[in-house]
Write a structure and sequence with these properties.
Elements (H helix, E strand, L loop, with lengths): L2 H17 L3 H22 L9 H8 L7 H11 L14 H13 L2
Length: 108
C-alpha cells in the first residue's frame, strides 16, 4: 500500500476510534500516521530509517534542526506518556497535531 493511503487509513482509524470514545487508540493511530510521514521525510532526504517504531522516529525527529519549534512540541506531545488514569498530561488534540506534522514533513 502506498504511504499516502497508509497515512489516510491511520487518520480515518483515529477519527473512528475517537468517535467511539477510545482516545487511547486514536493516539496510537495518530502516532502511526506521523511515523509513516517521518519515514517518507527521511527517505526523501536520503537518510537511513533507523527504526520501524513511530515512537522512536518521533524522538529522532525532535532532534532535526530543520523542524520548527512548534512541530518539535507536536512530536513531544505524540511521545508523552499518559497518566495512570490513561489521560494525557497536556492539553492537545493529537490527531490535529499529527496532521500538522505530517503536512509539514510531506511538503518539505
Amino acid at each position: 500500500m502506498d504511504w499516502k493511503l497508509q497515512i489516510q487509513k491511520e487518520f480515518d482509524n483515529a477519527e473512528r476510534s475517537r468517535s467511539r470514545s477510545n482516545e487511547g487508540q486514536a493516539r496510537v493511530c495518530a502516532r502511526r500516521a506521523a511515523g509513516i510521514a517521518i519515514r517518507e521525510y527521511l527517505t526523501r532526504r536520503g537518510r537511513r530509517i533507523p527504526s520501524s517504531s513511530a515512537y522512536d522516529l518521533l524522538n529522532l525527529l525532535k532532534e532535526d534542526a530543520l523542524l520548527p519549534p512548534d512541530l518539535k512540541l507536536v512530536a513531544d506531545h505524540l511521545t508523552v506518556r499518559v497518566t495512570e488514569a490513561f489521560k494525557l498530561p497536556v492539553e492537545a488534540d493529537l490527531i490535529a497535531e499529527a496532521r500538522l506534522l505530517c503536512d509539514w514533513l510531506l511538503n518539505k
